[in-house]
Every structure is written in C-alpha cells, then in structure tokens.
C-alpha cells in the first residue's frame, strides 16, 4: 500500500514531461506523430484510426481528440500514452472541429451532411445538430465561448452560431471555398481564409462586417498556387500567420496594417498551423513533403523541417 | 450492373476533392504548371545568365526520377561548393524547367488516359446493348452470344484494371513536385552559407 502511494507520488511529479509535446495527424498514414517540442525530435508514431485530420487537445492536456474521418467518429487518446480512451459520436466524415475554451463541448463540422454536431466531451452525448451551409468545413470559437463560427465551402459563408441556443445568428458571405476561421485572442477580429478565392477576410465580430480582405502575391508564384488554409494569430494580435497550401509558403501579416510582411518557404502543400504555448514556435503541416516545419515566430524564419508520417494534416501542441 | 458501378466509381469523389472529368480524371487539383517561387526563395536567375554545359548536364542528371534523391543531392553539393547565388539560381531554373516539362507531358498523358477510359466505357455499353439484342433474337445465335460475352469480359477487365492504376497515375505529378522541392532544398542549402 505504501509502495502504491509512492508510485502515485512519482507519477504526479513526473507529469511536467507532457509539456510541449507536438501531435501531428497524418491523413494518409492513419497515425499521429509525436514530437518533443524541446529537442524537436520525433518520439514516435501511433495508429489513430482511418484518415485522421482535425486534431485538438483539452485545456488540461489530458485528452487528445482526433477526427477519424473515414471511421465517422472522433477518437479520444491519452496524450501521454497514446492509448485510446474512448470515442465520441461525430456524424459522418468529421473533418475539423473546435473545442469550447472551457474544454466542453466539442463542435464538429460534418462535410457530407451539412451539419455541425455538438458533442458533450464528459457524457459523450450529442447535444445538438445544427444545419448549416453546403460542405461545412472551418470551425472557430470566440475567446468568450459565446459564438462558434462554421464556414461552408460551397455556400461560401461564415455562419455565426450562438453557443447557448445553437441557432445561426448571422451569415457573412466571403470568397470562394472558405476553409478556416480564427478569432484574435481579444475577440475583436475574425479571420476567414478562402482557398480558391485566395484571400483572408477580416471580419468585425460585433457588426459581422468584412473590414478588410487580405490578398497575397508572391514573386515567381502563379496566383492559382496561392491557396490560403490554416490561420493563427499571436496572443498580442501583432502577427497573423496564414498557410498558403501549394504555394508552399506561410504568409506573415502585420496586425496593425494588415499587410503581408513575409512569405516563409516551408514545405509542400502547407495546410494547418499550431503555436507552442509560449508562442516562440509555430508548427506547419506540409502534406506533400511529409514533414512539419518549425517557424521561429520572433524572426519569421523556418528553423527546422521534421519528417513525420504520410500526408500530415493537422497539428496541436500540448498546453503547459 | 457491374458496369454501372464501375462508371460510378469513375465519377465518385470524396467531398473534399475536385470533381474528375475525362480531361482530368484525378481527385487531386489540376495545376497546369508549377512556379519557381514554390520551391525557391533565392534570387531570380540573372537575365544575362545562360545554362553552361556543366549546369545543363547536372540538371539533366538530377531531374531523372531513377536517380535516388540522396545521390542527386550529393551531386548538387559537389557542384555548389563556392558558387555564387546567381549561379545557383541558374541551376535551380534549369532543374525547374526540366521537371515542369516532364510534369506537363504527364498531365497530357493523364488526359489521354481519362478519354480512353470514357471511350472504353462507351464500348462496354454498346456491347451490352448488342448482347441484349442477341439474347432477344429468336432463335438465339449462341455462338455469337458467347463471342460477344467474351469480348465484353475482356473490355470490363481492362477497364477495371486501368481504373485501379489511376490512383498511381494521378500520384505521378505529385511525385515530381516532391522531387523538385527536395532538389530545391538541396540547392538552397548552399545559399544560406
């Protein structure tokens, strides 16, 4: 008994080892690659079901959520052991989701049946199914947790969903094939990327008006290769990073002027982005070069490419 | 029925993907040409610069898919020692042009592949109609039915084999893009020094 207590005590002390592990979902490899955020070395890869895409972690770092698109459910793993804990119902073909800032519930975009499914992460029950536009894809949540944004690829809209009533309160028309929605940390701006339109719409969430459209031009790159997907904003709102798909670049946008200041060459078909908790590093998933690139946020430079599995799609870094 | 399913498979596409057509039967998006800026952040090649025979020979060699990428990178390393950024840009441009040309030829081939599949599907349909006619005839010509059935089986088999190969065929442009990107990294590594 005393022995068991000692072991318990040991494991409690050992938990800081979790900090800064990086989890990358590999769409074609059907696994998740785990990277040590300090040494930038791959720790291992673990099977997670069929066609893993969206990936996120609970605020306490105890549950890792993976959209297993071809299994039509969300699989939940222990981030420390990568053992499956349980699954969550998600509706068909879950692609991307967002977790409420409190850690519950989970809002999932179902591309095939034009719904956003709301799932309670504690009871594992579906709380609501919200009809949205055609081919829902991008998901974002306001920092106060009151509004969830869903973008629909074919309807070309950002839908504002009230998290209390599960009703759509506003629709904003954006450019073709909106992919991703991201709030600034102060909630004053919403960024929506349009893959085919080639733009990022900056929306004032209070008025639901588009205040600016960010466009991209890279010398020596044909415009059709510039396809904005993943977006991340630094906590101070001073830098916005935009993954530009087959342009193989991440654009850095100045938070004040909303003009592009840098185009960082990363890897092929750069798709999603994830900050470390201290925001010193930004990880990019590069689907065609099968690696992730580590960007130094202060200097806007690519510091390392790390080979992962087949077709990396999403990335999340464990909280501190 | 089996034929209908095959045809459906030709058209069926996951919602995330692009819709295949006879011109482009792949679920990957069709990018007619690559651009140098997708793989290169160094300076553009100087306007006066020409491919030297040495650069041309190196570009020819490393662009070949049968040369393992490690060997190609080693050949680039050997050449790039002490070369200025302009020379490296000329090398990069030379490699780019060769791989983009190869890739364009493959895109053309994929379109022809797509059209041949459609033509074959039409032929299968015609054979099925002919079979129905032969079977309805009174008295039926069993020899003709057997011959037609055999021809139909072969056409269906060729169709489905080609349909299975399509996955690999459609991956070829991506494989070339991966090679170009890896070669670009090898050349760019000498820029930063």
TrEMBL record, chain A:
Gene3D superfamilies, per database record: YVTN repeat-like/Quinoprotein amine dehydrogenase (2.130.10.10)
Assigned keywords, A-Z: Signal
SUPFAM superfamilies attached to this UniProt entry: Nitrous oxide reductase, N-terminal domain
Domain of life: Bacteria
Pfam families per record: Lactonase
Keyword Signal carried by entry: yes
InterPro entries in the cross-refs: Host-pathogen_enzymatic-act, Lactonase_7-beta_prop, N2O_reductase_N, PQQ_b_propeller, TonB_box_CS, WD40/YVTN_repeat-like_dom_sf, YVTN_b-propeller_repeat
Region forming the signal peptide: 1-19
Matches recorded under PANTHER family: DIHYDRO-HEME D1 DEHYDROGENASE (PTHR47197:SF3), PROTEIN NIRF (PTHR47197)
NCBIfam families to which the protein is assigned, alphabetical: beta_rpt_yvtn, PQQ_ABC_repeats
Protein name in the entry: PQQ-dependent catabolism-associated beta-propeller protein
Organism: Paracoccus chinensis
UniProtKB/TrEMBL annotation, chain B:
Entry superkingdom: Bacteria
Keywords of the record: Signal
Annotated protein name in UniProt: Uncharacterized protein
Stretch forming the signal peptide: 1-17
């Amino acid at each position: 008994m005393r022995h068991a207590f000692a072991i318990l005590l040991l494991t409690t002390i050992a938990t800081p080892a979790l900090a800064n592990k990086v989890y990358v979902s590999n769409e074609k490899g059907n696994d998740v690659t785990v990277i040590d955020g300090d040494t930038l070395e791959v720790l291992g890869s673990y099977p997670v079901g069929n066609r893993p895409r969206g990936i996120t972690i609970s605020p306490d770092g105890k549950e890792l959520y993976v959209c297993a698109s071809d299994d039509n459910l969300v699989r939940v793993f222990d981030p420390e052991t990568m053992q499956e804990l349980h699954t969550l119902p998600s509706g068909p073909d879950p692609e991307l989701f967002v977790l409420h800032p409190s850690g519950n519930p989970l809002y999932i975009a179902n591309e095939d049946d034009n719904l956003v499914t709301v799932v309670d992460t504690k009871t594992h029950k579906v709380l609501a199914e919200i009809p949205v536009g055609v081919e829902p894809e991008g998901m974002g949540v306001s920092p106060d947790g009151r509004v969830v944004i869903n973008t629909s690829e074919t309807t070309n809209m950002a839908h504002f969903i009230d998290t209390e009533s599960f009703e759509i309160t506003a629709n904003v028309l954006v450019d073709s094939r909106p992919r991703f929605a991201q709030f600034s940390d102060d909630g004053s701006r919403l960024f929506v990327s349009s893959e085919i339109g080639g733009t990022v719409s900056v929306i004032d969430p209070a008025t639901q008006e588009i205040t600016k459209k960010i466009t991209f031009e890279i010398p020596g790159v044909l415009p059709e290769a510039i396809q904005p997907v993943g977006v991340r904003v630094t906590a101070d709102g001073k830098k916005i990073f935009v993954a530009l798909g087959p342009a193989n670049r991440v654009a850095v946008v100045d938070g004040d002027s909303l003009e592009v200041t840098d185009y960082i060459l990363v890897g092929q078909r750069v798709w999603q982005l994830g900050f470390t908790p201290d925001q010193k590093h930004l990880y990019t998933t590069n689907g065609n070069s099968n690696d992730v690139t580590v960007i130094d946020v202060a200097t806007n430079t690519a510091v390392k490419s790390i080979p992962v599995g087949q077709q990396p799609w999403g990335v999340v870094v464990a909280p501190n | 029925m089996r034929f209908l399913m095959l045809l459906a498979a030709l058209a069926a596409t996951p919602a995330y993907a692009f819709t295949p057509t006879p011109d482009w039967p792949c679920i990957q998006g069709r990018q007619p040409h690559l651009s140098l800026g997708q793989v290169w952040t160094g300076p553009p090649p100087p306007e006066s610069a020409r491919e030297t025979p040495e650069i041309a020979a190196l570009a020819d060699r490393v662009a070949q898919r049968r040369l393992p990428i490690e060997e190609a990178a080693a050949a680039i390393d050997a050449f790039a020692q002490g070369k200025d950024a302009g020379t490296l840009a000329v090398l990069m441009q030379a490699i780019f042009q060769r791989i983009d040309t190869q890739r364009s030829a493959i895109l053309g081939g994929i379109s022809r592949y797509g059209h041949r599949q459609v033509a074959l599907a039409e032929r299968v349909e015609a054979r099925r109609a002919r079979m129905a006619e032969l079977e309805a005839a009174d008295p039926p010509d069993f020899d003709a039915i057997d011959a037609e059935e055999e021809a139909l089986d072969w056409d269906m088999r060729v169709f489905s084999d080609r349909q299975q190969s399509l996955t690999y065929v459609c991956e070829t442009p991506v494989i070339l893009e991966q090679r170009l990107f890896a070669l670009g990294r090898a050349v760019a590594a000498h820029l930063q020094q």
